[in-house]
């Protein structure tokens, strides 16, 4: 076991489920009632209030990433995912980052952007100037829609106007920039857009169509950085191989797509566990990766003066700790309790750090032993279960599949019959 409030744990995966639960209960000072949520399912009345036509619930495995130190604070990080190796990879990347102090993060203010589309304009440039001249009146009207948000220091802070040409003619798109504080912000922004749209249409002498936020939250950015020690990761030759692997993702969209998918393996697992909208985070991240006109890596790597590997991730992070499923889902509340976060910015810092750790671990594997060695050894257990293995048979059959290097269902069934005959 690790020291109190330290997330550095050796062999956490070797502990029984009960021992892992005991560890996190101690780390996060969970009550008995909170700990009981580990074995409970989302109740149907709550589920019925969350979406339409409910017939049941669907569970994902909830794992715990260890070893994370972010901004000089230790975290145990809940991750909800069905994909093997994700939690292990994040934990491994975090352990290597600890050698030089873990992850350092920064974030911009929580500004979300709402869009109001204006059409059928006789003078687009004149309409743009008229809207800009009435900016304060428009912001005042927007802020009248959410007094609670403005009392907390948030609210509509600015607007900008874009003139876009299209096959349907010239249109204006007005961007309303809203500080949403600790919320994801969709409802607040959309309400403000709806309120100001008629006024904007009148000022532009046109017609308002779409009035909704964009998930390209490029004013709400998290940046995370970590230094990975050369000796720890295997020496200069490994660093060189790592940088060669990264460079392909930097210049080639085909590699970057899978590279960034690996990043989102980690980030999405945190986002789901905390009750946030992983689809919004995905959309924003991939759009941000293409912001220069060419889709590229969300991470960057270089060597410092000592030859160590320095990794950085930068992406939009529109997360919230108030409102929506974040407050309705009991396990989402439990996961935020385990994290010990007090703001949306802190949650964004955690998610960004997980994304960097995940990406580093994947690139390291790709550059050395190959991704299949670790991934397929875990996948072998899934194949063993599909073949009909039960109890102790699962690990035994998985080990045989890995040893043979043939992790296939038909081979698993043959080996399972042999095991049972013996």
How would a textbook summarize the main sheet? 4 strands, antiparallel
Mean pLDDT metric: 94
SS-based structural class? alpha+beta
> What's the CATH superfamily of the largest domain, by name?
3-hydroxy-3-methylglutaryl-coenzyme A Reductase, Chain A, domain 2
Specify the oligomeric state: single chain
CATH architecture assignment of the largest domain: Alpha-Beta Complex
The domain count comes to: 3
Q: What Rg, in angstroms, do the CA atoms define? A: 25 Å
Termini separation: 38 Å
Strand order of the largest sheet: 3-8-10-9
Concise account of the structure shown:
This protein has 422 residues and is α+β, with helices and mostly antiparallel strands.
Describe this structure in words.
The protein contains 18 helices and ten strands. It has 422 residues and is α+β, with helices and mostly antiparallel strands. It is globular.
What brief labels describe this structure?
3-hydroxy-3-methylglutaryl-coenzyme A Reductase, Chain A, domain 2; Helicase, Ruva Protein, domain 3; four-stranded antiparallel sheet; single chain; globular; alpha+beta; Alpha-Beta Plaits; 422 residues
């Amino acid at each position: 076991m690790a020291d109190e409030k330290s997330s550095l744990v050796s062999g956490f995966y070797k502990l029984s489920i009960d021992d892992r639960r005991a560890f996190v209960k101690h780390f996060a000072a969970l009550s008995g009632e909170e700990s009981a949520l580990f074995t409970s399912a989302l109740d149907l009345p709550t589920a019925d209030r969350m979406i339409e036509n409910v017939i049941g619930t669907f569970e994902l495995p909830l794992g715990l990433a260890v070893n994370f130190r972010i901004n000089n604070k230790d975290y145990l990080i809940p991750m909800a995912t069905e994909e093997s190796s994700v939690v292990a990879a994040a934990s491994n990347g975090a352990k290597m980052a600890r050698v030089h102090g873990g992850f350092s993060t920064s974030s911009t203010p929580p500004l979300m952007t709402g869009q109001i589309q204006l059409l059928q304009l006789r003078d687009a440039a004149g309409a743009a100037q008229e809207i800009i001249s009435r900016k304060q009146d428009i912001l005042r009207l927007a802020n009248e829609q959410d007094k609670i948000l403005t009392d907390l220091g948030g609210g509509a802070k600015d607007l900008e106007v874009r003139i876009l040409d299209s096959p349907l003619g010239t249109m204006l798109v007005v961007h309303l920039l809203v500080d949403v504080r600790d919320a994801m912000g969709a409802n607040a922004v959309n309400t403000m857009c709806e309120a100001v749209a008629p006024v904007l249409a009148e000022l532009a002498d046109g017609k308002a169509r779409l009035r909704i936020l964009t998930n390209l939250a490029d004013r709400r950015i998290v940046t995370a950085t970590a230094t990975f020690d050369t000796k720890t990761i295997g020496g200069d030759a490994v660093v060189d191989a790592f940088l060669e692997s990264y460079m392909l993702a930097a210049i080639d969209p085909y590699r970057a797509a899978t590279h960034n998918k690996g990043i989102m393996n980690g980030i999405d697992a945190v986002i789901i566990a905390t009750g946030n909208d992983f689809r919004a985070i995905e959309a924003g991240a991939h759009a941000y990766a293409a912001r220069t006109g060419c889709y590229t890596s969300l991470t960057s790597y270089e060597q410092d003066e000592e030859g160590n590997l320095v990794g950085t991730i930068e992406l939009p992070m529109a997360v919230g700790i108030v409102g929506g499923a974040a407050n309705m889902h009991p396990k989402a509340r439990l996961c935020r309790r385990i994290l010990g976060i007090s703001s949306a910015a802190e949650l964004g810092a955690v998610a960004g750090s997980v994304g960097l750790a995940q990406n580093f671990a994947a690139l390291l594997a790709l550059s050395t032993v190959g991704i299949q060695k670790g991934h397929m050894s875990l996948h072998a257990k899934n194949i063993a279960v599909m073949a009909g293995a039960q109890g102790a048979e699962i690990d035994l059959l998985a080990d045989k599949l890995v040893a043979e290097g043939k992790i296939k269902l038909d081979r698993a069934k043959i080996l399972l019959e042999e095991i049972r005959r013996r």
